[in-house]
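User: Sequence in, structure out. Go.
Assistant: Echoing your sequence, followed by the structure tokens.
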Amino acid sequence: MERAPNVFLLSADSLRADAFADTAERLADELDGTRFPTAVAPAPFTASSVPALATGRFVDGTDPEGEAAGGSGDAGDDPASLLARFREAGYETMLLTDNPLVRPALGEEEGASTEGGLTARLDDALPRSLTRVVERGYFDAVWPLARRLGLLGPYYRPATTLHDRAEERLADADGPVFCWIHYMDTHTPYWPPTDATPEPGDYRTSARSRSLAVRGADALEPADLGPVRALYDRSCDALGTAIERFVARLRDSGRYDPDRDVLALTADHGENFDPGRGLIGHVPAASWESLVRVPLVVARPDWPASVVADQVSLIDLPRMLAVPATAAADESGPAAPPSPSSFAREHAFTVARTLGATDLVRGVRRDDGEKLFGRRTADGIDALRTVAPSDDPAAERVRERRPADAAPRPDPESLSAVLAARGGPAGEARDARRYDDAQLRALGYLE
């Protein structure tokens, strides 16, 4: 009896769609896959995006159509994640990542890897209220010097190491496999691998990228942004090369067969480099185009090679990856996923639970690029109406700024009315899931 198809989900942290467009196009062509150039993440940062793309429900408990899950919305009512669904269908599942937020977000018991290096442990040890200046000095001076002298390894395991580990585990698998790899190569501090000796400036620029993510846009010096963005782009290119080589090895070994198996490439959110947005990196919560437009390629043997230009949402990723066995395990699931074009959405929503608080911020993006979204700032939450008329995130312009509790416009088709039907741009989370502050600081999420 022919085995069920293997399923591979390759997701990257902080990966913008425009920074990965060439790799996504090449991979889609190589695998006869479907490319979705207008894919919208369900939230602008990991802690809210990963659980949504893994379960098909936003972190406020609503499904893609805005319907609330049954029950109180507590953890016991959470829908099963992709890992749980595939396990129930008889798959061997594996999740490889060094992001300490991913496993808790998915309710996975196994702890995150501790192989990320000395830097993460130092972050845990530094009392933030007493040593903020020391930590900034560490990333501005000590960290780049230690890297240059070879005293510190990468901040987290690079893609090539995760690929080696995945291949080891795949070799021992007896049945069908669901393999999820979540990369950190494009997360601060950016450190693209190279065979040559890095330029001296790379050490300091990499450390500076981490420091800027913590300090925010107000501390930005204009001369810093160009080198930091260039280092980020090099990290994106290096990750793309590593993924293409990994997929080629999977094909050569027979562990991935495009005529039988399923493979998806995407990201949980993007990254911002425009100081005019009020942030550098991806926190605090705000659904700018650079943060929610992500790459998406899905290669399935039952889908033709195609490009779906219409807007889609990663909230539909579980249905895109469903195979008959996993769909049968979910009573609400179809026997097989619909056609690629059927995932087009006029409105793509974002929902984020603000870190360290019980607030929710929501947003909606219309398929013409106009958006309305709540934004967390140091002064509270406001709402922005923006328009992104092209594929260049820098072209996004603010048309209106309003209080988060402003009444929706009378036109029921307006974005304010559409978002109001889902609770408006701001709300209160029913369950205040907390994350360890040291982990959040290590990722640059907390100042």
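User: And one key feature?
Assistant: The CA atoms of residues 25 and 204 lie 32 Å apart.
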